[in-house]
Amino acid sequence: MTQKFDVVVIGAGPGGYVAAIKAAQLGLKTACIEKYTDGEGKLALGGTCLNVGCIPSKALLDSSWKYHEAKDAFGVHGITTGEVKMDVPAMVGRKANIVKNLTGGVATLFKANGVTSIQGHGKLLAGKKVEVTKADGTVEVIEAENVILASGSRPIDIPPAPVDQNVIVDSTGALEFQAVPKRLGVIGAGVIGLELGSVWSRLGAQVTVLEALDTFLMAADTAVSKEALKTLTKQGLDVKLGARVTGSKVNGDEVEVTYTDANGEQKITFDKLIVAVGRRPVTTDLLAADSGVTIDERGFIFVDDYCATSVPGVYAIGDVVRGMMLAHKASEEGIMVVERIKGHKAQMNYDLIPSVIYTHPEIAWVGKTEQALKAEGVEVNVGTFPFAASGRAMAANDTGGFVKVIADAKTDRVLGVHVIGPSAAELVQQGAIAMEFGTSAEDLGMMVFSHPTLSEALHEAALAVNGGAIHVANRKKR
């Protein structure tokens, strides 16, 4: 007998598992299909983010930063240590345990909320039927009133540097190194490339980042990207802009990479090479030819503002649809879709999705950049505050970077908050909350911020928008 559900979710990443839990909480009979397995062959929920993305990379980033502090930054606090060593297999093992705990936690949440977990590859057929192919090759077809496609993304492969997961690796392979490579190459100066490059640089690798674009962190505010490049270069990352990789040749345990830049063809040799040029949607074998769902030439599923596809009752969320490939964006799309299935008029504010790069210092922003606003012809007032003037940052010996608040010159409404520095992600989230309620810079300036905190930097930057900062000299208005 065919199983029938109110909602069937294909994919158990941050979009899919959140949608499945929410659907069950709203009283809908829900199933979630996932094919990903861990090293032991067991079903591993949580998608790329929990298993080989956001979470494990943050574990390594934190471990490597603690190593750096113990080795190079404790002296200023009066703390003397002996020789500091890093046990890389232990660090990677800790990361694996965190992943195991979190993926197991999702399974527990499924049970607690009554979500039926199905292991296998899900494929949408015509008439909102879903075909599930199990690991042993057996096939089952289930029926759904509503289907949510949340199959996620995978790293982009490039012909000049084919991944072998030994010498040339993708982001997944870069999380599994058992020793620090002496010479590490990274293709791509995006979020993933900079984070993974930072991890291994702190542990002693000589890191070279090859970026095809001439602009560093194009999506970030120009002031932030300039500061980031200066800081990361000082930390030891050799970022080569305008460097287009044209080929690679593996010779035993090393790889020779060929690239072109303003000076012509160059060659450089690495012990390991990470390919981090972005991600592409996983839509291969997701849709039967007669499913009715349409995809574009890059493999993204066409959806409207509410993530509905061209087939009534079929939705798509997360990395398989337009917009930023971010876990939190996928999760909120999942919530919105399920609320709409239930008949509620839910919607998402795509203008206020925060972006974060977990280097040290952190880099984060929400809203628009100054260059984007100027290109649109919007007159703005800008306030900045450096962490070098923050008592809390001084106490923590973490004074690099600044907070930047951008407000409309006519209405004073805050249009962007950009931070590079300690706890940047948390400060930007404060800005996002305020902006969601239509805050003005004056509103933020009139609020009471506790002292001493890093949050005061946001307060002072908001005051500086209108020339009222207290703890830093204000720019004279022309």
From TrEMBL:
What are the disulphide bonds in this sequence? Answer: 49-54
Identify the EC number(s): 1.8.1.4
Q: Which reactions fall under this protein's catalytic activity?
A: N(6)-[(R)-dihydrolipoyl]-L-lysyl-[protein] + NAD(+) = N(6)-[(R)-lipoyl]-L-lysyl-[protein] + NADH + H(+)
Q: Name one GO cellular component term.
A: cytoplasm
Q: How is the cofactor bound?
A: Binds 1 FAD per subunit.
> What does UniProt list as catalytic?
451 (proton acceptor)
InterPro entries under this entry?
Answer: Class-I_Pyr_Nuc-Dis_Oxidored, FAD/NAD-bd_sf, FAD/NAD-binding_dom, FAD/NAD-linked_Rdtase_dimer_sf, Lipoamide_DH, Pyr_nuc-diS_OxRdtase, Pyr_nucl-diS_OxRdtase_dimer, Pyr_OxRdtase_I_AS
Q: Which family does it belong to?
A: Belongs to the class-I pyridine nucleotide-disulfide oxidoreductase family.
Protein name (record)? Dihydrolipoyl dehydrogenase
- Species this chain originates from: Pseudomonas laurentiana
